Each structure stands twice: as structure tokens, then as C-alpha cells.
């Protein structure tokens, strides 16, 4: 039963009351007393539908908000306030007067809103982070994160992976929002071939940083690329560029992946995007320059190498790559200048000393090449490649016994370095020691029989068996080499010439035809260059003329040295290749003094390089000598104790 009653805003709720028939039987009105919640002063007179109930002993009037969704009743029009059946508030006094059967769980809350807030407050601890339990005194300062990361890096460098992992796990516990511990831990696990654990760490890091850290995405992509998951690696590189489009390493890594897959046009597009969003970067310029050099566009490559060294003059890799380009073009004077720039940029770089030494040795400067290789070995005593090249140099210009000593020392430094065993076997074959050469080749293949070094080893072994008269063994070795690397031109032509020498001209022609049928050629499109120039600088017309595709790819030798920053353009003296090979031992044409440089930067005495080569004990790590010292101390202590006991007796 509903009664409509108009109530003005000026009327007080205490003045409003209704009386039930039980209180006044003679009254014709059916009414009851209802306390009313105060209404807002700005409300106009409203019509209140009242709902009477028999069991409402202490009713309450409740205003239902329009935005509430906790009630189950249909929503009334906005101009009406619905008075529902009031719910009794639970108090301790009500237990004495009311029966236990009438008490319901819903009576503990005065309204659905309060009940919803109570449920929401119960769920709040679930959304608190785990570190909220740590007080400000228990959580370390942020500077400890940098110190811990550096300590973990030093431990990983010393192959103490367990201690490094423990430190990084603590860093993740205290600073889960920082991405550096995830990257460092993933790399350490990757070095130990724990790919599944590394993947889990990267995934956890992406979730903790909400996918906004591009370094974690990039490292994860590199891991998947090493495992052979190319499609997954592409997606992760894409995620890294989405997280931060200025992250140049992601663009460059993605481009290198596409280059290995043969997608040259896609790789160029990615490198151009890296330059567009990230600005100048020596790695991108260097990769583009190598692509241009491979496509025989040498002037474009020189310009890009110049840009790479301009953005980072300390980039030894850029100087070396540029020097190798000039070596291929037989610009020996320019290449020597670039090698000098490379060692000045990184005095302890083993690649710089090695490539420069081999370059001088190939030009006939045996003393200069030997000196450079010895300097590189003095700076990097644990590198077997320098000793391998020095051994081949000594075999060519000195004796085989000295070469054997150097090969043996290189194999002791790194027993799993395949090129050392292959070069040693080749030397023994040249000396006529066929059994020793076979043993060296077997040692190389026992390390890994699926690499390109293994393919070269099988090809060299096949030539050995061919010269020894084992024709069937030679054929099997050639076939095995091509199963590993089917693109080796030398192996195909060696096998064809072998068959031709045996009188099988038809078989030799079939082998040559097989090579031309199965080889893969990468067609490079040069139409990207003009669009790429718009990214670098659209206002430089001189650069556009420099990168004109219609010009000839062969240029004069003196022009290439003008692109080198800091090169002496007025130097017109004869180079070492013109008849004076030892003229640049101490000072080059540009004023670079090699002896003074190694004295100042490397603290090496040029006259003692041979002495350092003859004392291999200097290359032994200190941790090997430590037990000997301990034994000596124990021996001296035992001697002193025995002497004391004898004196007492």
C-alpha cells in the first residue's frame, strides 16, 4: 500500500510522523512513525513512495544513489527517492530482545555500499607489493644497486657465476622495477647455456617493468636468435622498438638478423629507421658501410665509415673495417694510416694489432709484422690467434721448430680453438709429417664437426689424402666438407680439379655445374640510397653527388686518404710497398712513432719484446701460483716446528 505525501524542504524530519491504527483505533488514517534522512536544501518538493511492512519495528529510510550497483532493485526515476524495506543494524543490545533465528548475515551492514567497501578493504593487501613489508630502514639505498651490479659483473668476468647470480637475485628482490639486474642475470645464464632459465628471467623482467624496458626485450631477442627462433626474435625486436623507438641497439640487432637471413632490403630499412629515430650511431654507419663495400660501392662505403668515426672517434671496429676496405682496394698507404688510428683509439685491442701485423707481413714487411704481433701478444697474453699468426710467420721466414713451439703454446692457451690445430696440421703436412698432420686434423674435428672451421679442415685433409694417393678417402672428405658449407667455391673447384686430374672430365664438369646451380646470390637494390640521404641531411647536395650510382666504382688511390680525419694530405713520400719496407718501423709518414706510443700507452719496452716471448711463465695466471706459495709456507712452517721440537729435545 502506497501513500503519496508532499514534503517541503523547510519541514523538519522530526515534525513529520504517522500513527498506526494500533495506537489510535478511532483514527481513519493508516500511518506509522518513520525517521527521515535530511534532504539537500536545494532539492525541490519530491513525491516519496512509502512501502509499509508488518515487521518493521525500527525502520530506517535510506537514500539510494544513482551510481550504485550493489542493490538488486530496479532503479527509480531521478525525481523519486525509493524507500525500501529498512535493514536493522546489528548491535549487542538486540541479542537480548530478538531471537537468534531472525539474525541474518546481511544485517551486519547498514547498506550495500558499506558492504562493498568492506569487501574491497579486505582485498587491499592482495594488491600491495611484496616489498611493502620492508621498512625504510631495511631496504638498502639505491647506490647499493650500482655497487652490486658492478660486483656481479666482476664475478661473472672471473667465471664465478653462482656468486654473481646470488647478488643479482637480491637486486631483483629489493629493486624489482629496475631492468638492469634482469639483463645482467639473463646474460650470465646465457653464457652457461641455461637458455630456459634466461628466458624465464627476461619474461619476469618484462612483466615487472610493464614492458617499458627496451633493453630486456632486446636481450631476449638476441637469446632467441641464438637458439634459432627467428620468428620469435623478430617479435621481440619489434617489442623493443615499440617500448623505445630511440633504442638504436634494437634496430641494429634486428637488421643484423635480417642480413643473416638474406633480407638485404629489410635490413637497410631497419638501419635507416635506427638513424631516423636514434640519431647518428657508429654501429649503424659501420654496418651500412660494410653493405656498400660488399656491393662494390666503395665511395659510399668510405663516406659511411667517415660518419661512423666522426660520431665515435674511439670506435676501433670502425677504423679496422675501413682499413680492410682500403686493403682490398690495395690502398696500402691509406690502410696503414687507418691502422694507426685504430691502435690509437684502442691500444689494447687484439684485433687491431693482429690485422695490422698480418697486413704488413703480406706486404713483405716481415720484421714490422713480427713486431706488431709481438706487441699484441704482450698486451693480450691469453689470445691464441696472435700466436697462431706469429707461428705461420716464423714458419715462412724462420724455422719450423720455432713455429712448432708457438703452435704448442697457442694450443695450451685454448685447446678448443680449431684454427690453431688446422694451421699446425697444415705446417706438418708441408714438412712431410703426414701422420702428425692427420692427428692434428683429427684433434680439430673432435672439437666440433659442424662449424665452418671444420669444413676447411676437411677440405685441407682431402687435399692431403689426394697427394698421398688415397683417392676414395679424398672424395669422402670433399663431400663431407660440402655437406657443412655448400657455398665454398674453393672446395668445389678443388674437387673438380681432382676429378679432372684423374681423367674424369665429365664428372669434373658435373661438379662445376652443381656449384653454379646450388649457389645462392643476394641481389642488392641500390634504389634506397637517395631516400637514405634524405634521412641524413637533405640539404647536402655534395653528398648526393658523392653517392651518385652512375659513377665508376674504381677511383684513384690518393683520393681515399682525404676522407680520413686528421690525415696528412701533403705527405707524398714513398710508402713501405714502394721499395723501403723498414722505413716506418719507428716513425710513419704521418708522424706516428710506434716505439714511443707503446712506451707511453702500454708501458712496454720495444727491445724486450723477444724476452717476453721467451718467458711464457708471465702469461700464467696468478691463481695458479697461489697454491705453490701456500705449499712453500706450509713447508717452512713444518721445518720451523721440527727445528723447535728438536731444540727442545
Automatic annotation (TrEMBL):
InterPro entries: HAT, Mbb1-like, TPR-like_helical_dom_sf, TPR_rpt
UniProt keyword list: TPR repeat
Biased composition (Polar residues): 54-74
GO cellular component: chloroplast
Domain of life: Eukaryota
PANTHER family (alphabetical): PROTEIN HIGH CHLOROPHYLL FLUORESCENT 107
Name this protein carries in UniProt: Protein high chlorophyll fluorescent 107
Amino acid at each position: 500500500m502506497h501513500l503519496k505525501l508532499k514534503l517541503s524542504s523547510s519541514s523538519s524530519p522530526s515534525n513529520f510522523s504517522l500513527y498506526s491504527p494500533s495506537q489510535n483505533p478511532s483514527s481513519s488514517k493508516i500511518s506509522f512513525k518513520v525517521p527521515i534522512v535530511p534532504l539537500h536544501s536545494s532539492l525541490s518538493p519530491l513525491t516519496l513512495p512509502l512501502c509499509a511492512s508488518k515487521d518493521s519495528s525500527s525502520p530506517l529510510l535510506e537514500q539510494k544513489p544513482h551510481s550504485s550497483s550493489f542493490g538488486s532493485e530496479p532503479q527509480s526515476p531521478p525525481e523519486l527517492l525509493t524507500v525500501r524495506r529498512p535493514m536493522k543494524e546489528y548491535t549487542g543490545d538486540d541479542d537480548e530482545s530478538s531471537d537468534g533465528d531472525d539474525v541474518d548475515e546481511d544485517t551486519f551492514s547498514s547498506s550495500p555500499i558499506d558492504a562493498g567497501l568492506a569487501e574491497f578493504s579486505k582485498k587491499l593487501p592482495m594488491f600491495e607489493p611484496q616489498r611493502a613489508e620492508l621498512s625504510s630502514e631495511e631496504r638498502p639505498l639505491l647506490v647499493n644497486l650500482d655497487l652490486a651490479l658492478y660486483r656481479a659483473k666482476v664475478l661473472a668476468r672471473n667465471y664465478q657465476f653462482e656468486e654473481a647470480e646470488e647478488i643479482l637475485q637480491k637486486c631483483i628482490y629489493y629493486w624489482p622495477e629496475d631492468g638492469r639486474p634482469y639483463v645482467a642475470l639473463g646474460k650470465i645464464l646465457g653464457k652457461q647455456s641455461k637458455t630456459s632459465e634466461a628466458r624465464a628471467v627476461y619474461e619476469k623482467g618484462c612483466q615487472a617493468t610493464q614492458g617499458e624496458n627496451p633493453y630486456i626485450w632486446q636481450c631476449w631477442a638476441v637469446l632467441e636468435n641464438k637458439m634459432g627462433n627467428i620468428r620469435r626474435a623478430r617479435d621481440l625486436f619489434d617489442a623493443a622498438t615499440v617500448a623505445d623507438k630511440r633504442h638504436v641497439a634494437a634496430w641494429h640487432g634486428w637488421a643484423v638478423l635480417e642480413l643473416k637471413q638474406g633480407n638485404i632490403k629489410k635490413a637497410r630499412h631497419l638501419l635507416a629507421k635506427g638513424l631516423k629515430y636514434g640519431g647518428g650511431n657508429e654501429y649503424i654507419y659501420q654496418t651500412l658501410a660494410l653493405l656498400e663495400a660488399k656491393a662494390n660501392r666503395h665511395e659510399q662505403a668510405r663516406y659511411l665509415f667517415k660518419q661512423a668515426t666522426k660520431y665515435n672517434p674511439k670506435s676501433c671496429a670502425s677504423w679496422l673495417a675501413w682499413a680492410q676496405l682500403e686493403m682490398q682496394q690495395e690502398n696500402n698507404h691509406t690502410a696503414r694510416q687507418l691502422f694507426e688510428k685504430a691502435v690509437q683509439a684502442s691500444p689494447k685491442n687484439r684485433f687491431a694489432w693482429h690485422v695490422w701485423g698480418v697486413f704488413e707481413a703480406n706486404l713483405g714487411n716481415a720484421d714490422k709484422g713480427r713486431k706488431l704481433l709481438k706487441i699484441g701478444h704482450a698486451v693480450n697474453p691469453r689470445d691464441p690467434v696472435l700466436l697462431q699468426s706469429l707461428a705461420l710467420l716464423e714458419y715462412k721466414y724462420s724455422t719450423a721448430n720455432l713455429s712448432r713451439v708457438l703452435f704448442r703454446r697457442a694450443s695450451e692457451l685454448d685447446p678448443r680453438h680449431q684454427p690453431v690445430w688446422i694451421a699446425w696440421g697444415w705446417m706438418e703436412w708441408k714438412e712431410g709429417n703426414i701422420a702428425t698432420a692427420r692427428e692434428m686434423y683429427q684433434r680439430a674435428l673432435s672439437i666440433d664437426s659442424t662449424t665452418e672451421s671444420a669444413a676447411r679442415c676437411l677440405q685441407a685433409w682431402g687435399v692431403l689424402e689426394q697427394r698421398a694417393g688415397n683417392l676414395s678417402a679424398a672424395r669422402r672428405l670433399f663431400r663431407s666438407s660440402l655437406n657443412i658449407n655448400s657455398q665454398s667455391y674453393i672446395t668445389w673447384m678443388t674437387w673438380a680439379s681432382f676429378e679432372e686430374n684423374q681423367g674424369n672430365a665429365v664428372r669434373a664438369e658435373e661438379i662445376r655445374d652443381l656449384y653454379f646451380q646450388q649457389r645462392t646470390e643476394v641481389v642488392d637494390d641500390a634504389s634506397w640510397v637517395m631516400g637514405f640521404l634524405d634521412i641524413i641531411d637533405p640539404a647536402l647536395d655534395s653528398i648526393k653527388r658523392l653517392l651518385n650510382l652512375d659513377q665508376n666504382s674504381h677511383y684513384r688511390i690518393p683520393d681515399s686518404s682525404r676522407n680520413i680525419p686528421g690525415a696528412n694530405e701533403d705527405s707524398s713520400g714513398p710508402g713501405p710497398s714502394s721499395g723501403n719496407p723498414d722505413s716506418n718501423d719507428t716513425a710513419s709518414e704521418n708522424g706516428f712513432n710506434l716505439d714511443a706510443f707503446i712506451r707511453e700507452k702500454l708501458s712496454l719496452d720495444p727491445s724486450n719484446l723477444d724476452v717476453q716471448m721467451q718467458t711464457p711463465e708471465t702469461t700464467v695466471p696468478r691463481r695458479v701460483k697461489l697454491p705453490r706459495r701456500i705449499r712453500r709456507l706450509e713447508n717452512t712452517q713444518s721445518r720451523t716446528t721440527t727445528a723447535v721440537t728438536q731444540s727442545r729435545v
